[in-house]
Design a protein that fits this description.
Layout (H helix, E strand, L loop, with lengths): L1 H18 E6 L14 H11 L4 E3 L6 E3 L2 E6 L5 E6 L19 H12 L14 H5 L2 H4 E8 L2 E6 L6 H5 L9 H9 L16 E7 L3 E6 L12 E6 L3 H9 L5 E3 L6 H5 L4 E7 L2 E7 L9 H10 L2 H7 L5 E3 L22 H10 L6 E7 L10 H13 L3 E6 L3 H9 L5 E7 L10 H4 L1 H6 L9 H11 L4 H18 L2 E14 L2 E2 L15 E2 L3
Parallel strand pairs: 1-10, 1-11, 15-16, 15-17
Antiparallel strand pairs: 2-3, 4-5, 5-7, 6-7, 8-9, 9-10, 11-18, 12-18, 13-17, 13-18, 14-18, 19-20
Helix pairs in contact: 10-12, 17-18
Amino acid sequence: MLALGLAGCSAEQQDLRADGLVYCAEGAPEHFNPQRVTSGTTIDIISQQLYDRLLDIDAASGELRPALAKGWQSSADGLVYEFDLRHDVQWHQTDYFQPSRVLNAEDVVFTFNRIMDPEHPFHFIGGGIYPYFQSVDWASLVKQVSAPEPYRVRFELSRPDSSFLSNLATDFAAILSAEYAAQLLAANAPQLLDSQPIGSGPFIFREYQKDVLVRFYQHPHYWRGPAAMQQLVFDIVPNNARRMAKLLTHECDVIAYPRLAELALVTERPDVKVQESTSMNVGFWAFNTQRPPFNQVKVRQALALAINQRAILQAVYFNQATAARSVLPPTSWAFNQQLATPEYNPQAAKALLAEAGLASGFNMTIWAMPVQRLYNPNALKMAELIQADLAQVGVNATIVSYEWNTFRRKLTEGEHDSVLIGWAADNADPDNFFRPLLSCAALESGSNRAQWCDPVFDRILNQALLTDDQLQRRSFYLAAQQYLQTEMPLVALAHSQRIQAINSQIEGVTINPYGGIALFSARRVQP
């Protein structure tokens, strides 16, 4: 038996070198349902590999385009949207599920009712937390999802929302199989929906070895045509030096977020190519505004003045990032050009602390991500720089870190004083940078790392959603950015370039400025 097992592994590895791809990931997935996470690490591994959405986003223009929905229309008042579905979308076939039909409107209704309806049999499976959808107040927005015809879906809204279509194109809006869910419910095993996934995407789930690897196989009946690669493996390698080593020894074909200090060395190698692109993202330092003294505006303003943003860009991003003035990147049509440039002024910081009654300083923690992400390539290094800056104004900061999934859980529970984290856009709508990060609904869902709920700010965002007129929307977003700069629940630090390094034999892998990694088009070419 041992010999047979080893032979099988050897054959699988041989197949992988011939017509498979290994992607070195920085962390493990939390589970296999995109609806239940906001972690980019999880989304990169599962969303665009296993699932499809009603709509996609054009990577070049940011415009919406058909996906599972081949067309759509809306009512004049913006309260009803109808989507016509493709008739040829096959579900994955595995040893644990054999579908009897293609994807239809029943699946879309099931998918969104699970998120919205507390009475739905799957709503509380996994805890009843759907962070992205709860952060955009989805349950109060969508009154009903129905299937007037087998391949037509109707969404009825309680109010106009100019970000509605964009939200359907995010990586979180993956469509699940209602038939598979019914099978699991009948077997009294509903929890398997999120751990033994069934989707309609280009790859089929094969296995997950916890904290080691995730293995997918090609979906031969994918509606866009089969992927070029027969097999796709995500090798889980938290250490960025080891990821780079595996790329150079050809154990990995693609690594995201290569160490910026090593880029010059890597670009000289003929067997490696480096891709770089402007991406919609922001790295930030958020304060837990529910905890004293961070509930004081003057304290937050003081801490923002105390840190040297320019030094951070040099030491952490190696100048491969733009200094942030807002959570919204300068490439957005709603960016406020009138915002003041961040100031480094320790003396002004001390004065504000004195006004807040903290002239002698205080103790605090800075939570630093243990993984490398697009928006922050080295959170521990950044924390050390901020720690040194804070010491100059009398603030004693202790750096805290945990394993990635533990880190995220404790953040959601609000155990931090402050945290270095960030956000990468899922669509081109400006709302994607505001409500998921800073709305009152996002506080309830756990994605608001500043633990900040401000009715004035929420009112500004809601006004922006009630109109499709871009000039009117922009005026509200300009005001929102100005309000954030005054209230300072977080300090926006950098908008990073997105960089990945690839084995030169791999083609068809590109950087998408919106959303996660898509490996459907990846293929291996012989030198």
